[in-house]
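Re: the multi-chain job from yesterday

Posting the exact lines I submitted so nobody has to dig through the queue logs.
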Amino acid sequence: MATLEIRDLHVSVEAENGPREILKGVDLTVKQGETHAIMGPNGSGKSTLAYSLAGHPKYTVTGGSVLLDGEDVLEMSVDERAKAGVFLAMQYPVEVPGVSVSNFLRTAATAVRGEAPKLRLWVKEVKEAMAALQMDPAFAERNVNEGFSGGEKKRHEILQLELLKPKIAILDETDSGLDVDALRIVSEGINRVRSTGEVGTLLVTHYTRILRYIQPDYVHVFAGGRIVESGGAELADKLENEGYEAYVKGGASE
Amino acid sequence: MADVQNTTGSTTAGSIEVGTAGAGAQLAGPGTGRAAVQQPIDARVAVKPSYDVNDFPVPHGREEDWRFTPLHRLGGLHDGTAATAERGEDKVEFTLPDGVTAETVGREDARLGKAGTPVDRVAAQAFSAFEQALVVTVPKDAVLTEPVKIDVRAEGGVRFAHVVIDVKPFAEAVVVLNHEGTGTRAANVELLVGDGAKLTFVSVQDWDRDAVHVAQHNALVGRDASFKSVVVTFGGDLVRLHPRVNYAGPGGEAELFGLYFADAGQHLEHRLIIDHDTPHCRSNVAYKGALQGQDAHAVWVGDVLIRAAALGTDTYELNRNLVLTDGARVDSIPNLEIETGEIVGAGHASATGRFDDEQLFYLMARGIPADEARRLVVRGFFAELLQQIGVAEVQEQLMEKIETELESAV
Ligand SMILES: Nc1ncnc2c1ncn2[C@@H]1O[C@H](COP(=O)(O)OP(=O)(O)OP(=O)(O)O)[C@@H](O)[C@H]1O
Ligand SMILES: [Mg+2]
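And the result, structure tokens for all chains:
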């Protein structure tokens, strides 16, 4: 069973006046089949955690460890992490001009699976996954994220989640910018992947509304660059009612 | 001003340097809100066109049309030393469909020099020094189903070449001129497109890394004729091509496509002139280049001149560059000069974008290794242009060449 273990993770970014520590000792274990919601105020470091796990070069790990089934994730390059089974659905997916969605998806699937998927089966697989996310088939011929609306970008991220079948899925604010219908469609996509029981999900969010569709097993409150409280789904209700104020004041947030 | 923008919308311009039209002619004419012409395209070429090398002074490098070119890497093509250097051989292979002739002719042959006159010292040097010319003729009304192929393999030394492709009225042909090997080469290529004829001319510069190649392409497009130029430049240390279009009668159409890939240290320069002096003609230019590595340098100058007589002209030119790494330099200068308001349309665009770290991260986060990610982006960037070529066989061959280039370079 795949397990992601984050131990005392410290991460800095290069700021104007030297390095600035954003993550200040994150501890978290995510097992295959589990869903963890990470909730916290703006600027608390949620995306920093997500990007650091995926290996974005902007973030420098200054301490701690991240292991996936005992393998040192921090030693791996970005593509190796993806191949090892780490997937990051991004808060702000970037445009890649000149690369069509269909070409991109097939190249990614080939890389992650270690061999090119059989063309006929692949075409069918993509078609079905797009249909399930109510994406117009015309998107396959458009360039990656180019001119996509916020909601379309998020669907495209979840499309990749469904096709790449990672062991650990990190979903950074996948709910933001979605209207109610889109939120439902995207959540159903995430639930389809979760229902296989083969993915550990790290659901990063600012709001509780996505948790109406996706039942977390654990909720963690993130503030000031670390997890300040953990609990079950009921913790989300508390946040819904009381907000983050208690954590921001009392916590280590700057 | 040229419409210089960053296609990726990112701010990581890094070492990209983009030339602007400021140094050349200013954009003037309808819709630009600008009437002043700083320095007309005509006037920027300092010397009158001539077949005689002695009519051109040796360039010193500050002239408008030489200022981007590293003269010391021209192998003496510009200062007369190449003319006395040891001559080299070219191995040339022809694929000639039925009815097409290829002749080697002497300097005095009456068919030479009809499509245009050398406009700079190297072109004039080539004209003054070539020994024999190649004349390829596609007879009147012949509609070729197979491309004419001229495969040139240069085997070192210096050589001056002169090629005439004469497509007679109402004939239709695709001609592919492929360059491989190495040496110092200067050439004039004449492209005569007869009335109602259609010519697609493909010039591939697949040189070895140390080759030097300077060529002027003169197209003379007949009444209601279509001319398509496809220039693909991958190899060479210094390549400087000068495709030019003139119209012999109304209704002519010219499309100029170009692809180039500059690696570390390579200087790849494309300077185009489309001279609209005839009414109701069209032109469309699209050049795309990718660059990577220290001191990879691409220069693109697109001059479009719409003279007072050229009523009903419709023209558009575009240059896009994709910078893959730090250290590469692009100078992209579109110039549009309009002397009549009675036109259908005129526009230009130039954009230099950077394949940035965020795009690379996004692709890698999906398991795609860095080199494959770059290839994916470059392939897509070029494919958009290839699709416009409209000759399936040529498209496929060029895509294969691009693949080979990407495999070895990226
Ligand atoms: N280059 C940088 N220089 C200085 N500070 C930075 C830099 N990059 C990020 N930060 C800071 O790091 C902190 C954490 O940012 P992060 O994006 O991880 O927050 P977040 O919890 O995802 O917020 P949101 O809910 O708005 O998405 C913020 O205070 C941000 O300003
Ligand atoms: Mg965030």
